[in-house]
Fold this sequence. Notes:
By secondary structure, the chain is of the alpha/beta class. It folds into 3 domains: 2-75, Alpha-Beta Plaits; 103-293 and 496-550, FAD/NAD(P)-binding domain (3-Layer(bba) Sandwich), CATH 3.50.50.60; 296-489, no CATH class. The protein is 28% helix and 23% strand. The chain has 13 helices and 24 strands. The protein has helices at 15-26, 63-72, 109-120, 134-147, 181-191, 208-224, 279-287, 307-315, 387-390, 397-412, 424-429, 458-472, 525-543, and strands at residues 2-10, 35-44, 52-60, 77-78, 103-105, 126-129, 228-231, 235-242, 252-259, 264-266, 270-272, 293-294, 297-306, 332-334, 340-347, 351-354, 364-367, 376-385, 419-423, 447-449, 484-489, 496-497, 509-510, 512-514. The strands form 6 sheets. The protein has a 7-stranded mixed β-sheet. The longest helix is centred in the last third of the chain and has 19 residues, at 525-543. The two termini are 26 Å apart.
Amino acid sequence: MLRINELxxxxxxxxxxxxxxxxxxLAIKPSELQSFSVFKRSYDARKKANILLIYQLDVVxxxxxxxxLLQSNKxxxxxxxxxxxxVAQADANFPxxxxxxxxxxxxxxxxxxxxxxxxxxxxxxxxxERGQDVRQRTKDTWGLWRDRKLNSESNVQYGEGxxxxxxxxxxxxxxKDKRFLGRKVLTEFVKAGAPEExxxxxxPHIGTFxxxxxxxxxxxxxxxxxxxxRFNQKVETLHRETxxxxxxxxxxxxxxxxxxxxxxxxxxxxxxxxxxxARDTFEMLLQQGVYIEAKPFSIGFRIEHPQSVIDDxxxxxxxxxxxxxxxxxxxxxxxxxxxxxxxxxxxxxxTVVAATSEEGCVVTNGMSQYSRNERNANxxxxxxxxxxxxYPEHVLAGIDLQRKLEKLAYKLGGEDYSAPAQLVGDFxxxxxSSELASVKPSYQPGISLGDLSLALPAFAIAAIxxxxxxxxxxxxxxxxxxAILTGVETRTSSPICIKRGKDFQNINTKGLxxxxxxxxxxxxxxxxxxxxxxxxxALALDLLQVDVTTSDSTS
Length: 555
């Protein structure tokens, strides 16, 4: 096949128009085009009066014609092979007496893909998830949203599917992906019931309801391949011994773990895919001597506008077009203070949700269903902060700051899991809000209007107040008086990094494979899934003693 890049057509083009454009692009006869498929479809909406669709296509011609075109047209390339190949395969009788089964801690996107790939390689992983299966977890999460009852071990953050289950289900990232591992993730999602369009649209998403069924199907496949998945299994202690072998840079090594039930499991290969909110686990790891560093993250609020305002600002007369769907945005502003403010986790046609995992705290996040047809658009508007100047006290000081802000939000909201909120117009004027206007907040269990300048450090408030009018120049209506800010957004990413080396193992603990968002190596469903695959590959090569010099698995 040949790959055609950057083929542009009007938004309302027909299938025949696309076929004709391919024929014209290649300067071939209609009869010479055997078939084609869409590898990627995106859009260019910079000119609202002339929105264009942009295609990457794989075209099938006769072998002789393809060879001729490749020689005569230097812009053409053969279509790359995007099929995934396992890097290793265990014997059918794994584990042998001298082998131990690998353990995966956490069953979010990273843990799911790590476990799936390990299972596909015949390594029969044991998966430990502190939360509940996705069905029970959904009921527990609604218990907070509807009844203000928090289950601190089964909620938006903890449980099968991870935090991404209650989100927009975005499936795109900026990770460099030369081996098309992202396509492996998407392929497995489609096998599990995700819409096939996620394979080619530029900004694919799934939505919570579809994610629930998809996660269950992937769990069933891991089990079918010999994996074992245990819910309500919190890891209390990792067993880490001083390394006496004198090999490599690791001063310690993993030998197993103990669960909250008291059960001990032995394993020299453990994937740590715990997510960005497993604060008690971070503390345990540090106490056990695992090397951890503080890292930057961001704090701010959720902002809500009518989705129609965003659609009109982005698409003009094409607002409501079925191909374009509900409009999104991505914004950044560099403040005079040197701080940066940006939009994060934008959810078109979605809702703001309660996302705490700890008693007496309020945390917000965003969620959309596949249809994205709720009345409001929402996004986090957050300020970047750094350990060196904002929380320099110790490695876990970022967690202390998160907790402080979340407890303050709980107090400002009325201490019943309502979230503090304010109209954008009042926020910019530095005056408290006392009543809603045209924009109705979607946050459940409810909001308490007031003064959000009390909810974040003064530098963050000043930065957001500077950024919102600047964003209004890019998205008309962004600074509308009636828009709603809801606080607080503190869990944009992990506040720590569990450092690993080129072998994907923690730099001072052999056999421990930190992975995904919680370890500081991903940001979103797709990048977490990709990281899970990379870690699974590295683990398999080490466990099965495959010569890594013969494999490109860890690139």
